[in-house]
Amino acid sequence: MRHHMQSHGGLTSIIAVLVLVLFMVLVRLSITWWILPLRAQRKLRKKGFGGPTPSFPLGNIMEMKKKSNVSEVSSLKQLMTHDIHSTVFPYFAEWQKLHGKVFTYWLGTEPFLYIADPEFLKNMSVIVKGKDWGKPNVFKLDRKPMFGNGLIMTEGDEWVRRRHIITPAFSPSNFKEMINIMVESTKRMITKWVDLTSSGHAELDVECEITATAGEIIAQSSFGIGPQECTKVLQKLRALQVALFKTNRCVGVPYNNFMYPKHTLEAKRLGKEIDELLMSFIMERRKSADTRNEPRDLLGVLLQESHIEDNKRLKKKLATRELVDECKTFFFGGHETTALALTWSLFLLALHPEWQKQLREEIEEVVGDKEFEVGMLTGLKKMGLVMHEVLRLYGPAPNVQRQARGDIRVNDVIIPDSTNIWIDVVSMHHDPTLWGDDVNEFKPERFDGDSHGGCKHKMGFLPFGFGGRMCIGRNWMMMEYKIVLSLVLSRFSFSLSPNYCHSPSIMLSLRPACGLPLVVQPL
Ligand code: HEM
Question: What InterPro entries does UniProt report for this protein, alphabetically (predicted)?
Answer without folding.
Answer: Cyt_P450, Cyt_P450_CS, Cyt_P450_E_grp-I, Cyt_P450_sf, Cytochrome_P450_Monooxygen
